[in-house]
TrEMBL record:
<protein>
    <recommendedName>
        <fullName>PPM-type phosphatase domain-containing protein</fullName>
    </recommendedName>
</protein>
<dbReference type="InterPro" id="IPR036457">
    <property type="entry name" value="PPM-type-like_dom_sf"/>
</dbReference>
<feature type="domain" description="PPM-type phosphatase">
    <location>
        <begin position="12"/>
        <end position="209"/>
    </location>
</feature>
<dbReference type="InterPro" id="IPR001932">
    <property type="entry name" value="PPM-type_phosphatase-like_dom"/>
</dbReference>
<dbReference type="Pfam" id="PF13672">
    <property type="entry name" value="PP2C_2"/>
</dbReference>
Amino acid sequence: MNIAICAATVKGPKHHRDGQPNQDAIFYRVWQQYWLMVVCDGMGSKPYAHLGSHLACKAVYATVKNCDFAIPERELAKMVYLKWLAYLKEIHIQPKDAATTCLFAWGDSLGAVRLFQLGDGAIYYQTETFGQVKVKADDLFSNQTDALGFSKSWQDWGYQMIYFTQAHHRVALMTDGMSDDLVDEQEFLATMVDILKGKNFRQAKKYLQHELHHWQTPKHSDDKSIGFIYWK
């Protein structure tokens, strides 16, 4: 597969000061003719948010590696949720105490890419056009948050199928600690990937970590996580 993957997550200044763990989690893997990127953001108000996000990453990988790539999106989302619940049950944690967003991109060697999003954050992609995975609009009159641990309906998920066929095609997944601060998302995606393409894997990861640590915007106190997938 002629793709490159780079991702990073950093603990926000507030969690450093409070001695709390990073409540974001990332996971990426390439195997056989497939690749996967997962970015999750544990809900900060929950006592086991950090475990929820890490187990969500684990649940996505455990699910997709044993599935046909053509599995219906609704069925896949349900299987991920059930796997996540099973992991929590093993360690006697209630789902609502480990609630987390869940964003992932699953691709194959032919260029097909399946994008899933539950909760805050963003998935931006550049193929022949620029786009973003659409999720359900926030309900200002409800306290319900879209996340594993709260959402049980497929309607809460955003889904998009795209195709990598050209060298300029790329995708980024990020938590809201970054996405909420972006002004020109298309320019950000283009600029970041162009920079990463000029670096080897170790250099690219180090560069991303530096950028996240020095994120000079109003939400800088948040944990921050981002993952990129692009043609080499």
